[in-house]
Amino acid sequence: MTVPTKVIPSVIPFCYDYEMAQKVGPKGQVVIPKKFRDELGIEPGDEVVVSLSENGVLIQSVHTTKSLRGMFAGSGMLKMLMDDRRNEAR
After folding, report:
1. Domain 24-65: CATH class, spelled out
2. Which DSSP category does 42 fall into?
3. What is the CA radius of gyration of the chain?
4. Residues whose CB falls within 8 Å of the CB of residue 58, separated by 6 or more in sequence, listed in order
5. Which of 53, 62, 60, 54 lies closest to 36 in space, CA to CA?
6. How far apart, in whole angstroms, are the C-alpha atoms of residue 16 and residue 2?
7. Which of 20, 52, 61, 88 could form a disulfide with 33 if both were Cys (CB 3.0 to 4.6 A apart)?
8. Are 32 and 21 spatial neighbours (Cβ–Cβ below 8 Å)?
């Protein structure tokens, strides 16, 4: 059995060892500190999800959860799958 030599966290733990105060701009914008962006791999143009949590506001990167909706639209895959399903039942 191979034991992993390095584990890369996918999120910053709640008890992360530093905090950074940010001012809210006139349009309600807040800058995500560079250290956090680097840690999470957030780059300019990436999307984030902003939601309310029990302790405040939660900002999550969505670049790893890209939607697949509509990816196969017009490909004929639905018809192919339905035909395959019909043939399987016989």
Report:
1. mainly beta
2. -
3. 21
4. 50, 51, 52
5. 60
6. 29
7. 20
8. no
Sequence spans of domains, the chain: 24-65
What's the one-letter identity of residue 15? Answer: C
- pLDDT per residue over 48-82, tens digit each? 888 998 888 888 887 655 667 787 788 888 888 88
27, pLDDT greater than 90:
yes
Place of tokens 């999470």: 40
Tokens of 42: 């957030």
What DSSP line would sit under 43-74, residue for residue? -TT--EEEEEETTEEEEEE-TTS---TTTTTT
Q: Please enumerate in sequence order all residues whose Cβ is within 8 A of that of 57, keeping only pairs 6 or more positions apart, or say none.
A: 50, 51
Confidence of residue 15 (pLDDT cuts 50, 70, 90): very low
Other Cβ atoms within 10 Å of 36 Cβ, number: 16
Q: Which two tokens stand for residue 61?
A: 């990167």
